[in-house]
Automatic annotation (TrEMBL), chain A:
Keyword Repeat: no
Transmembrane segments: none
Region: Disordered, residue numbers: 18-45
Pfam families cross-referenced by the UniProt entry: Glutaredoxin (PF00462)
Swiss-Prot/TrEMBL keywords: 2Fe-2S, Iron, Iron-sulfur, Metal-binding, Redox-active center
Domain Glutaredoxin residue range list: 58-123
InterPro entries in the cross-refs: Glutaredoxin, GRX_PICOT-like, Monothiol_GRX-rel, Thioredoxin-like_sf
Protein name in UniProt: Glutaredoxin-related protein 5, mitochondrial
Record gene name: Glrx5
GO terms under cellular component: mitochondrial matrix
Molecular function GO terms recorded: 2 iron, 2 sulfur cluster binding; metal ion binding
Compositionally biased residues, Gly residues: 32-44
Length: 161, 139
C-alpha cells in the first residue's frame, strides 16, 4: 500500500511541477477586510462555512486548487482522492480568502489546512485521510456516500489475474 | 565513562538532537500532556522553503497509551490541545503520527512526508503585501 502512496506523491509532484511557478492570481487589493472571520455574513462565518461543507458529499479546504495545489499536504489530499477516482468534489482555496481560512479553523476547531469534509462532517487533515486510505476506511466512507472507489475496481482486476 | 565526559557528550547530543526553542517547547508539552513512551519532534521547515531550523513546520511522532480506544481525529485533537499556544503562534504546520504502544510495536515506521509545493513561499509574499489575518507571529 505504501508503495502506491509513494507513487502518488511522485504523481502529485510531477503534476504540480507542470503548472507550478505560475504566479497565484491574487485577490483584488481593494477587497474589504470585513469585521473579522466571524463577521455576520462574511465568508468565514459559521453560516457561510456550514453552507460550504454541506454543498457536496466531498468538500476540501486546501491551499491552491486540485489542478495546482500550493502545499504538499493539500496535494496529498488531492492525490489520495484521485487514487480513489474521486474527481467531482468541492475544493476551496483558503489562500484566496483570509476570512474563510480563519473561519474554517474556527468551525472545525482544527488549526491547520487541509481539511476534509465527508457528508458535511469534518473527517480530518492529510494525515488522517492517508490513514483512512491505507486501512480501507476511505473506501467504506465513500461507499456510504454512494461513491464507488476506483480502487475496488483495481482490486477486482488483480483478483482476476 | 568518567562523569564530566559523559556530561559533555550529553550536552553535545542535546544540542544536536533537541533542536531549537520551539522544538523543545513542543517536546515538553507533549511529554507532559500525553506521557509518551516514544516521542519524536522533527523540524521539517527546511523541507518547506524555510532555512534549516526555521521552526515553522513540524512532524511529531507520539506513541502513548492515552490514545487507546480513540479514533485518529480525537488523537490529533489531544495533540492540538497540548500545543494550542504554539499553533496560535509560530507553528505553521503540524504533521502528526499518533499511535498506541501496541500499534507502534506492530508498525514503527513513519509514512513518508509529502513534498513541499511552495505554499509557504506564496504566503510570505502575501504577508509582505499586507497579511492574511492569520496567527500573530509574536515570537
Amino acid at each position: 500500500m505504501s508503495g502506491v502512496v509513494r507513487a502518488a506523491w511522485r504523481l502529485g509532484v510531477a503534476a504540480a511541477r507542470g503548472p507550478a511557478g505560475r504566479p497565484l492570481s491574487q485577490a483584488p487589493a481593494g477587497r474589504a477586510a470585513g469585521g473579522g472571520a466571524e463577521g455576520s455574513g462574511g465568508s468565514g462565518s459559521r453560516e457561510a462555512v456550514e453552507r460550504l461543507v454541506r454543498a457536496h458529499p466531498v468538500v476540501v479546504f486546501m491551499k491552491g486548487s486540485p489542478a495546482q495545489p500550493l502545499c504538499g499536504f493539500s496535494n496529498a489530499v488531492v492525490q489520495i482522492l484521485r487514487l480513489h477516482g474521486v474527481e467531482d468534489y468541492r475544493a476551496h482555496d483558503v489562500l484566496q480568502d483570509p476570512d474563510l481560512r480563519q473561519g474554517i479553523k474556527n468551525y472545525s476547531n482544527w488549526p491547520t489546512i487541509p481539511q476534509v469534509y465527508l457528508n458535511g462532517e469534518f473527517v480530518g487533515g492529510c494525515d488522517i485521510l492517508l490513514q483512512m486510505h491505507q486501512n480501507g476506511d476511505l473506501v467504506e466512507e465513500l461507499k456510504k456516500l454512494g461513491i464507488r472507489s476506483a480502487l475496488l475496481d483495481a482490486e477486482k482486476d488483480k483478483d482476476k489475474k | 565513562m568518567p562523569a564530566p565526559l559523559l556530561a559533555a557528550a550529553g550536552r553535545g547530543l542535546w544540542a544536536m538532537g533537541d533542536g531549537g526553542p520551539l522544538a523543545r517547547a513542543i517536546r515538553a508539552k507533549l511529554a507532559a500532556a500525553l506521557q509518551p513512551t516514544h516521542l519524536q519532534v522533527l523540524d521539517e521547515s527546511s523541507r518547506h522553503g524555510g532555512p534549516p531550523g526555521a521552526e515553522t513546520h513540524f512532524t511529531v511522532v507520539v506513541v502513548s497509551g492515552r490514545f487507546a480506544g480513540l479514533p485518529p481525529l480525537q488523537r490529533h485533537r489531544l495533540v492540538h490541545a497540548a500545543l494550542r499556544a504554539e499553533l496560535a503562534g509560530p507553528l505553521h504546520a503540524l504533521a502528526i503520527v499518533a499511535r498506541t504502544p501496541q500499534q507502534w510495536e506492530n508498525d514503527p515506521l513513519v509514512p513518508p512526508r509529502p513534498p513541499c509545493l511552495g505554499g509557504s513561499k506564496q504566503e510570505r509574499r502575501r504577508d509582505a503585501a499586507g497579511g492574511d489575518g492569520d496567527s500573530p507571529r509574536n515570537q
